[in-house]
Design goal:
This protein is of the alpha+beta class. It has 5 helices and 4 strands; from the N terminus they run αααβααβββ. Strands 1-4-2-3 form a 4-stranded antiparallel beta sheet. α4 packs across α5.
């Protein structure tokens, strides 16, 4: 896990490639999207990730608020990634426990 974070933080390889090298289960596509977005933006709120994911997977003739269907998967994967030590969940500038948080939060890659 530490090797993976070090390689990715240096921008040497993608998470998917590192997972294959280490013979681990591949990441969920939503988790991959979260990590890619955080690598590009630094931090993001779950709603921002869900909107971006909804835009990327938009189907023709879909309602403008169709991104809402991605909110639960984004939150679930955010907690999974926080437990795995890949991201931090932040509230009011403080890192919070992924098992017990509420309110307005953001996530960022773990330093």
């Amino acid at each position: 896990l530490l090797r993976r974070r070090a390689l990715v933080s240096r921008g040497l390889q993608s998470y998917k490639h590192i997972m294959e090298l280490e013979n681990e289960k591949p990441l969920d596509p939503v988790a991959e999207f979260i990590l890619d977005m955080l690598a590009a933006t630094g931090s993001a709120a779950p709603v921002d990730v869900a909107r971006a994911l909804g835009g990327a997977r938009k189907r023709p003739n879909e309602k403008p608020d169709a991104w809402r269907r991605f909110m639960n998967p984004v939150k679930q994967q955010m907690v999974h990634l926080a437990r795995a030590g890949l991201v931090e969940i932040v509230r009011k500038g403080e890192v919070v426990d992924p098992e017990d948080f509420r309110g307005v939060i953001r996530m960022r890659l773990k330093a």
